[in-house]
Amino acid sequence: MLTPVEWSALRMSLLVGGTALLLVLPPGIALGWLLARKRFRGRLLVEALVFLPLVLPPVVTGYLLLVVFGQESWLGQAVLRPLGLRIAFTWVGMALAGAVVGLPFLVRSVRLSVEAVDRGLEDAARTLGLGPWSTFVRVTLPLARPGIVAGALLAFARALGEFGATVMVAPNVAGTRTLALEIFRQASVPGGEAAVARLAAISVALSLAALLGTEWLGERRRRAAA
Amino acid sequence: MAGRTPPAGGRVIRFDLEIRRPGFTVEAALESDARVTGLFGPSGSGKTTVLLALAGLLRPRSGRIEVGGRVLYDSAAGVFLPPERRRVGTVFQDARLFPHLDVRENLEFGARAAKGAGSGGAGATLDEIMHLLDLEPLLARPVTAISGGEARRVAVGRALLARPEILLLDEPLTGLDADRRRRLMAYLLRLKRSMDVAMLFVSHMVADFLTLVDVAGVLEHGRLVETGDPVALLTRTPASGTGPVETTLRGTVATMDTVPSVVCGGIPLVLHLEGGAPGDEVVVTVGAQDVLLGVGEAPRTSARNVLRGRVVDLHRVPHRVLARVDVGPVLWAEITEDAAASLALVPGSEVYALIKAAALRAEVFPGKAER
Questions:
Q1: Distance, in angstroms, between A37 CA and closest chain B CA?
Q2: Which residues of B touch A126 (CB under 8 A)?
Q3: Tens digit of pLDDT for each residue in B257-291?
């Protein structure tokens, strides 16, 4: 049904999107909680940095990633090279790009859902002998879960379709292209229109599934709250 | 003292706090070894603020908290134990059950964390707590499907299973209808009898307070102004002008025979009782207007309660006199100025207090569960 190239692109999209999701979850939940619960100096700066990828041209985001994670960067020279690691121009770099552009969606959703958790319940948990971390895991997290899951799905969908930032850090060799990258390549090749249409259809189906998942979770949450 | 329960195994609670909140300062010092210590005061007097400080959910400006010999807070020594290390169980007015867990999971919530915390405090098992508070029928229910009174009962059980040294109860009866209030009070009295845990009860309701509390602290405008016997403290002055003056007495049902009687503060009282069994705890209320005073020989009247005593003091209010009469416990009696004059009542006068059986209102709190 699908051609090997299409399979490869779909697989790469899911790999990059999935890895991006894994990368974005810990900092996304931590930052969402931080912004919802803590007042600290530099809060506005943290907030601005988190939401920057939302307004920045993705190509700029990609460029900045190269500046930070490239082999010639400080990080590259001091850490990556000595360890024989490479992020720029690998699929890991593509996943990182996806994570960064997906972060604002996750943080926003986590923050809103944590803000909606009654702090009185967290206090109650503390008086029952739970420390701050256990309270977070056993009370805050489960109560905020619907919002976290919805945010994670959005971030995943965003990472899945990421092009501008990804193209900057992608190796751009056969077998490493996501759906978005493959569409761009086929579109620049004479006679690639049919391939583009098929890839676009796969892309639409995938994104639609992710969005429907988000909506379904939101609906379930509203019903549970009612 | 009526119905005073022995001290809870030397578990002394002692605090001296200064708490600053925006536009509000609370200063409160109290020491008590009673089974149930109470904080009484109108809403806004700082009761809940003190309670939050004891629980560790609010940091006082300065002071010290000690429970059962353990220092929980000492500003001078730089000690501030976080709530989870205080072993101070807290039952909030709004119960605060976890909505993502059912009743059983709520009960077990604190028990898990308490497992490694060693012994001491209320070491009751889930079975014992379930039995004591009749929680079994609720276990599998989501917390959204139980009533307000039931939710508070679950919250009490949940707090006890975390094995606290002391249980804080923040207005646990407020907002319940009369019947639910009475039932929950019966459970709290059972708890007081059978669990090895000190309790700190916060309330603005005189009747609830007198029913449960052994040692009282009275808060006014953020200041703990007095500490002592609750009956003496709360019946000393006519309850701040509003409403009829009443006397509330705590006792136990003596007999349910043809003439039911209760014993309050060592004296038997004959009254009408519906339900109840000998040994049940009872709270008796009598209006000051329903207490007659007589001097001379013990008169023969239809009043079933003729109590010999002595006038403690007389309070003049417009057109009438409120007398405190010590008949064992102290009663309020309201008489006219004319009557006070013709009986020549002065502090120390020997009198008889006469109360009709029908004038004594009794609330019985069964020792055994009622369904």
A1: 15
A2: 56-57, 82-84
A3: 888 899 988 899 999 988 888 988 888 989 889 99
- Contact between chains at B98 and A124 (C-beta distance less than 8 A): yes
The β-bridge relationship of strands B62-67 and B70-74 is antiparallel
Order of strands, sheet of B320-326, starting from the edge strand that comes earlier in the sequence: B292-294, B350-355, B305-317, B320-326, B330-336
Q: Kindly list the residues from chain A whose CB atom is less than 8 angstroms away from the CB atom of residue B96.
A: 118, 120-121, 123-124
For A52-118, the three-class secondary structure string (H helix, E strand, C coil) is: HHHHCCHHHHHHHHHHHHCCCCHHHHHHHHHHCCCCCCCHHHHHHHHHHHHHHHHHHHHHHHHHCCC
- B108 in contact with chain A, both atoms CB, cutoff 8 A: no
| Cβ distance of A143 and B99 shorter than 8 Å | yes
Q: Which chain B residues are within 8 Å of A140, Cβ to Cβ?
A: none
The CA distance from B181 to B173, in Å, is: 6
Least confident piece of the model among A48-62, B3-17, B275-289:
B3-17
Q: Give the DSSP per-residue string, B232-296.
A: HHHHSS-GGGSS--EEEEEEEEEE-SSS-EEEETTEEEE----S--TT-EEEEEEEGGG-EEE-S
Search chain A and give the residue with CA nearest B166: A127
Q: Is B118 on the interface with A (CB under 8 A)?
A: no
Task: Give me the interface pTM, i.e. the ipTM.
Answer: 0.82
**B23 backbone dihedrals φ, ψ, rounded to 5°:** 70, 20
pLDDT tens for each residue of A8-39: 999 999 999 999 999 999 999 999 999 999 99
Shortest distance, CA B88 to any CA of chain A (angstroms): 7
Q: How close A89 comes to chain B (CA, Å)?
A: 45
Residues of chain A contacting residue B86, judged by C-beta atoms under 8 Å apart: 127
Rounded to 5, what percent of chain A is helix, strand, coil? 80, 0, 20
Q: CB-based contact (8 Å) between B88 and chain A?
A: yes
**CB contact B250 to A (< 8 Å):** no
Place of tokens 């109590």: B307
User: Which band of pLDDT confidence, cut at 50, 70 and 90, is reported for residue B50?
Assistant: very high
Length of chain A: 226
User: To the nearest whole angstrom, how far is the Cα of A209 from the nearest Cα of chain B?
Assistant: 28
Predicted TM-score (pTM) of this structure: 0.81
Distances in whole angstroms, Cα of residue A167 to Cα of each of A64, A72, A94, A185:
13, 19, 8, 11
Q: What is the CA radius of gyration of chain B?
A: 22
Count of A-B CB contacts under 8 Å: 62
Helix, coil or strand: residue B361: strand
User: With 50 as the cut, is the pLDDT of residue A57 above it?
Assistant: yes
Contact B113, A130 (CB under 8 A): yes
Q: Which helix (H) or strand (E) element contains residue B310?
A: strand B305-317
